[in-house]
Amino acid sequence: TETPAPDVAGITAALNAAMADGAPGAMARFSGPDGVESLTAGVRDRATGAPMDIHARFRIGSVSKTFSTVVLLQLVDEGRLVLDAPVNRYLPGLLPDDRITVRHLLTHRSGLADYTNAMFADTVPGFEAVRNRVFTYQELVDLSLAEPRTTEPGVSYRYSNANFVVVGMLIEKLTGKPVDRAYEQRVFKPLKLRDTSYVHPDTRIKGLRVRGYLHPDAAGEPLVDSTEQTVSWAQSAGAVISSPADLNTFTSALMRGRLLSPAMLEEMTTVTPTDTTNTRFYGLGLRRYDLSCGTRVYGHTGTVQGFYTYAFSTRDGRRSLSAVANTSNHGAANTALGGTLEAAFCGPKPA
Ligand SMILES: C[C@@H](NC(=O)[C@@H](C)NC(=O)CCCC[C@H](NC(=O)C[NH3+])C(=O)[O-])C(=O)O
What we know:
Blueprint: H1 8-20, E1 25-32, E2 35-42, E3 58-59, H2 63-77, H3 87-90, H4 102-106, H5 116-119, H6 123-130, H7 137-145, H8 161-175, H9 179-188, E4 213-214, E5 224-225, E6 241-242, H10 244-255, H11 262-268, E7 272-273, E8 280-282, E9 287-290, E10 296-304, E11 307-314, E12 320-325, E13 327-328, H12 331-346
Parallel strand pairs: 4-13
Antiparallel strand pairs: 1-2, 1-12, 3-6, 4-5, 7-8, 8-9, 9-10, 10-11, 11-12
Helix pairs in contact: 1-12, 2-8, 2-9, 7-8
The chain binds glycyl-L-alpha-amino-epsilon-pimelyl-D-alanyl-D-alanine.
């Protein structure tokens, strides 16, 4: 089937809708057979009024989970660990259930509770309490284990940041190095992702950056500038910094098979439904969205204080979209931003 050209007006409309729904700014970058479309709206800094800039860097939240998954699956490809082995084989005594496997972590089917629900129940106080804190991986795992399991291992999809905290622990145990070295050597450098970094626990976004603004829970309260934080509450589950172009490069290279063996990429893109709409799926650290035109896109979404992100490619890696809005805790803005996917990959709506 021929690939429709992106609906550029539709992408712009989605960015403007995100702003109408409370984002100070938004931007999107589409890369396809006919070239690149870069679209920006609003501001990247409310104090200075500096306009959104397609080259600026921002926190990608859970899109980090796909970076962590790529590193771990490279280790599987190298025979360093086995997907269906118990996590406790590599991290003895860490988890209270030997039935929890590495695959259960990557598919959010481990049953490990997501400690962020309690941590951020009160959005702004919760954020202020941790924005400068530095957690060890073990402290985050302990927070999760203090809550009941959410499913028997492997039985149901239950999204949890704890899964990708354990993925970070596995990477550090198996490589003998901090996780940032693995990201750098195995993904950032080979793909020349010059705007992408993992600087935990440094709180800054270095270079040209987007400032992020957190919506408080109470309507009418002022936005909170949440740009500087350690993101130590997430680390390998959400602390990567990147840019629109680097995210396009990453998801495209992943789908083109530049990062994993064909067999491993097949494992990663083998999905199960995450809801009953039959359009949203999860593989290994990877979402699949089935769009209205039948196109399937693979990537991840991200939500971290002040930033909503989408980063997706088609299965052949020939078309990629990344989009960010510099707000969070405001679902309407996130849904509006998600409209960039249909516009980018399905083209103009039939009249
Ligand atoms: C869902 C998303 N997950 C992620 O990106 C991870 C890293 N983020 C979270 O789990 C949300 C933490 C709270 C954000 C805060 N919300 C609150 O504080 C709510 N009380 C905010 O919106 O900034 C994904 O996988 O797409």
